[in-house]
Specification:
about 375 residues, alpha/beta, Aspartate Aminotransferase, domain 1, Aspartate Aminotransferase, domain 2, 2 domains, four-stranded antiparallel β-sheet, globular
Length: about 375
């Protein structure tokens, strides 16, 4: 029988990259998928009640004051920034993203933390002011960038910043000292669990990507201080229905719509994430990584390495290294051949083609064997 993808001319393949947006982000486990199916097939609900009740559960789980499900981490960053800019002022909410008349609309951002998604801090009309240097930033440099128009600190928490940067805790202290807010993109900071909770409690508004915990690709979490999360909530996609008669005639967050199944998926995925045995989960991923080392052992010009540092965040990766002088091809050509095979296998380069990184968390055991076999064929 022809699969649903093939019916529409789409070619399915094997995701050896991990939770990447370009490939669809996540595959909800059966428990989460069943909850989503039930939520969308068993009737309708008042969406505000759904968001608020699941938000109460999320906030209680993370130890924060308030939370709600968003359409991804990017939406949570954008709505959180809008909350800092507008507060509880309905006229300002209606004005966003035009902040030209606001007394404060700037956010300091560590220059060296530059990354693709920092634009999410600007979608609501915030202006980023770079502070520090490409290779570091001190507290004094951050404070020097704070001026009369500074509304807050925009912070990208990767979980891996060294001592040469202003840490999240230091940023919290700077924000409190200067009476400004701290907005945190912590999209992948979902493990270890104490890190998840610590980051959630540190920012005034914190964004997480729920795809990393087994929720649908298009979901996220906005959490933090009650007054700001409430402002973000009112500017979300049901804001007009909630507050239109009180003046919020142009809800900024209308495009950030979620489905009731997605909302329930986040709540169930979070419950599962905090109740599962993560040592067993990581042992399964370690077995997958070891399968690559075993399967490619003895292949001329090919070695594997498994990072041994503490597992942070969602990515569980094994690296395949190539000596092009022996194999005759580098990582770019390997990836090309993997993608052109049947089924296509998608992975990514590392070290400028000297190796490829394979995210194993989206791979089944059978897919691991398929990828290993294809790699052996390429080098045969």
């Amino acid at each position: 029988m022809t699969g649903i993808y093939e019916q529409f001319g789409v070619t399915p393949g094997i995701n050896a990259r991990g939770n990447q947006t370009l490939l669809g982000g996540s595959t909800p486990p059966p428990e989460v998928q069943a909850a989503m199916d039930e939520a969308t097939s068993s009737g309708y609900v008042v969406f505000e009640e759904l968001l608020r009740k699941t938000g109460e559960f999320i906030a209680e789980t993370l130890g924060t004051e308030q939370a709600f499900v968003t359409s991804g981490a990017a939406a949570a960053i954008s709505l959180g920034t809008a909350a800092v800019l507008a507060g509880d002022d309905r006229d300002r909410m209606a004005s966003i993203p035009d902040t030209s008349g606001f007394d404060r609309n700037e956010f300091v951002f560590q220059r060296g933390h530059d990354y693709t998604y920092k634009r999410c801090f600007t979608l609501a009309g915030g202006k980023l002011v770079d502070v520090g240097r490409a290779d570091g930033c001190t507290v004094e440099e951050m404070e020097a960038g704070i001026g009369p128009k500074t509304a807050g600190i925009a912070y990208f928490e990767s979980g891996r910043w060294g001592s040469e940067w202003v840490s999240l805790d230091q940023a919290r202290e700077v924000a409190d000292k200067h009476g400004i807010k701290l907005v945190v993109d912590a999209a992948g900071q979902i493990y270890p669990l104490d890190q998840f909770m610590r980051v959630a409690r540190t920012g005034d508004v914190v964004a997480f990507g729920a795809k990393y915990i087994g929720s649908p690709h298009s979901t996220g979490i906005c959490t933090g201080r009650a007054e700001l999360v409430e402002s973000a909530f009112l500017q979300n996609f049901i804001g007009f229905e909630l507050a239109g008669i009180q003046g919020l005639a142009r809800p900024y967050g209308r495009p950030y719509k979620t489905d009731r199944g997605e909302v329930m998926g986040v709540a169930v995925a979070l419950r599962r994430w905090f109740s599962m045995n993560h040592e067993e989960r990581l042992a399964v991923e370690e077995d997958k990584r070891s399968a690559f080392a075993r399967g490619l052992a003895g292949t001329a010009g090919v070695t594997t390495s498994i990072p041994k540092e503490a597992q942070l965040g969602p990515n569980v990766t094994v690296f395949i290294h190539f000596d092009a002088g022996i194999t005759g091809i580098d990582g770019h050509e390997v990836i090309k051949q993997l993608e052109e095979g049947d089924p296509p296998i998608w992975t990514r380069t590392h070290d400028d083609g000297g190796s490829i990184g394979i995210g194993v968390q989206m791979l089944s055991d059978e897919e691991v064997e398929t990828v290993v076999e294809r790699l052996r064929d390429i080098f045969a």
